[in-house]
Design brief:
Number of strands: 15
Bound molecules: zinc ion
Helix content: 10-25%
Shape: globular
Order of helices and strands: HHEEEEEEEEEHEHEHEEEHEH
């Protein structure tokens, strides 16, 4: 996630940081060397991702009320999709905030990005009771008590990430169309592309599952160097869906700038929980696993199309 951060720095006007990005190489093949990087917390005891344990090992908390989203329903403005050599990141110029959900403060959305596998058997960073998903979406937010992302990233209450498991679905998820369609423009490391919001409008809210009140919460870290242990993690119970073709489009970009290393398996495996508690916002007696209530998932497929129509 570090290079995502550096991109945000650049947008905030700190061009010097971009130079550091170029001299701060790391990759997913050799993750054991992450902890040797300067300022790294990658060998710390509160690392992410984690395996979310079975429901009975999680703790219900009635402080985990539904999030209040602001600006998520607006059309995204100035979206820029980037290949930073580790993932595909989308930044935007509109303001989107989250409050409640026991965050204790207001957090501003800085960017979203994905992690995915070489095939559908793997790709997510978090796992649920040992189960992995083909991909995972992260929406990175920083605490607005700090002036910008760069200030917030090193603070213990600096970041909040909303994470979503992505499962392969039977139909095209048109809500991801504007992002997936733009992938062909950012196939190489360093590529950036402005998504045309006239021909491809989208809203952050429509990228997410309809139901957001059921989620898991724990304290963790960035999942990329420097693995800062400053993230309040929220993983949602309801799944997102992409078609096989859409997942394949993600696999058709490259880590490098000469199109020799396909960008696949850009995920970090679950890290030791070291006694950290995982809290859940919903009553365990009515639940089994992420996305287990198939009726709402089926309805989601129907309504996905509807979302596109009403945009
Ligand atoms: Zn991430």
């Amino acid at each position: 996630m570090m290079e995502h951060i550096l991109t945000v720095f650049a947008i905030l006007g700190n061009v010097v940081i971009l130079v550091r990005a170029a001299s701060d190489p790391w990759n997913y093949t050799d993750q054991s060397s992450w902890s040797q990087m300067s300022g790294s917390q990658c060998s710390g005891t509160n690392q992410s991702p984690i395996n979310l344990p079975p429901m009975v090992e999680m703790e219900y908390s009635n402080n985990l009320n539904p999030f209040t989203l602001a600006g998520y329903e607006a059309l995204v403005t100035g979206p820029v999709i980037s290949n930073n050599g580790h993932t595909i990141t989308v930044t935007f110029t509109n303001e989107a905030h989250i409050t409640d959900g026991d965050l204790g403060s207001r957090f501003k959305a800085a960017q979203f990005h994905f992690h995915w596998g070489n095939d559908n058997t793997r790709g997510s960073e978090h796992t649920y009771n040992g189960k992995t998903y083909p991909a995972e979406l992260h929406i990175v937010h920083y605490n607005t008590k700090y002036p910008n992302f760069g200030e917030a990233v090193s603070k213990v209450d600096g970041l909040a990430v909303l994470g979503f498991f992505i499962e392969v679905g039977p139909i095209h998820n048109c809500n991801f169309g504007p992002v997936v369609d733009a992938l062909s423009n950012v196939q190489m490391n360093g590529n950036r592309y402005s998504i045309n919001t006239t021909s491809s409008p989208f809203k952050l809210r429509h990228l997410l599952p309809m139901q957001l009140k059921d989620y898991y919460r724990y304290m963790g870290s960035l999942t990329t160097p420097p693995c800062s242990e400053t993230v309040k993690w929220t993983m949602f119970r309801d799944l997102l869906y992409m078609s096989e073709e859409q997942l394949q489009k993600l696999r058709e970009v490259y880590f490098d700038s000469s199109k020799t290393q396909p960008m696949v398996d850009n995920w970090r495996p679950p890290q030791p929980r070291n006694g950290r508690r995982v809290y859940i916002s919903f009553d365990v007696k009515t639940s089994s696993a992420p996305g287990a209530h198939w009726i709402s998932s089926s309805m989601a497929f129907v309504l996905l199309s509807f979302y596109c129509l009403v945009l």
